[in-house]
Amino acid sequence: MSAPTSPADLYRHSLRLLLDKNIPEWVALWAEDGLMEFPFAPDGWPRRLEGKEAIAAYMRHYPDHIDMRDFPDLRIHQTTEPETIVVEMRGVGRLVETDAPLDVTYIAVVTVRDGHLTSYRDYWSPLTVQEPGTDFTRSSR
Fold this sequence. Notes:
single chain; Nuclear Transport Factor 2, Chain: A; 7-stranded mixed β-sheet; 4 helices; alpha+beta
């Protein structure tokens, strides 16, 4: 596959990599100084990951905990800044440990520069982790 040329294309590619459980390639999409933020993360969960290495460590065991199967309802909005998009979507799958269904709504603000993710603010609902059977995600969040 040729390299994605727009922030929206790169984001769609990143989702495909997550569905394929290809975390090394997903991490490779990040700039070395990339910043991933979770403004609504509950106490005890990371709110800010600085640098590709921290993001890689955070995501390393993602497939061991979450089996994401689809990202329906994907809507990507261009902003007045050509490198920044706002994404609305759902993540649908299952929790590996319990086989419980997972259905999470996301809004993300994503910035791409020089073909790499540089900033990703993930506004996911902390209520998701308060549901029974979701405690496992602490190690991947």
